[in-house]
Design goal:
Elements (H helix, E strand, L loop, with lengths): L2 E2 L1 H9 L4 E3 L6 E4 L5 H7 L8 E3 L14 H14 L4 E6 L15 E5 L4 H10 L2 E5 L11 H7 L4 E3 L13 E5 L4 E5 L14
Helix pairs in contact: 1-4
Amino acid sequence: MTQVSLTNLIAGARAGLLVSFPTDTVPALAAIPEKAGLIFAAKQRSQDKPLILMAASAEDLWTYVKGSENECKVWQELADKYWPGGLTLVLPASDRLPKVMNPIDPTTIGIRVPNSAIAQTILAKTGPLATTSANFSGQPPLQTMAEIEAQFPKVLTLEYQGEIPGAGVPSTVAKWTGINWQILRQGAIKLDISSDNQI
């Protein structure tokens, strides 16, 4: 049995172990950023598919990205509008980001604040975590902690009874091009990319 209490899951994550917990979209497979390689290995995920840095608040994430004053203003406005929620922003990465998060292109990083009380409780105590959906690469996201436990027996999964909250739809991914946003994946949030969100 790898199902553990909230306290043990947080302690495990902080100690560098792989963990899994519900979010507002699909359940996450997560590790501290320096241990992101564990996620690639567990999922059999190709190195060119970067992970998402998830945190309890936007303030915890801004130090991992870098941009001009104008760019940061545009990013913050969009984050204020959709976070917490199912929107991942792909932005230029700062030197603080471990390269293992995005081995092929360490110059960018996807960041997100989930609209999930459980996820936020965990992230507030662990700090930002490298995350992705809990499933083998290329397969549909697993929807129950029991399925996750069966597929990833070594991962610490949160003890959770009943239906996992969450839309079951991955987050929408928007990448900053330097002047505006490019939608890489249409997901949980229908993004309105109007002229307000451009430079």
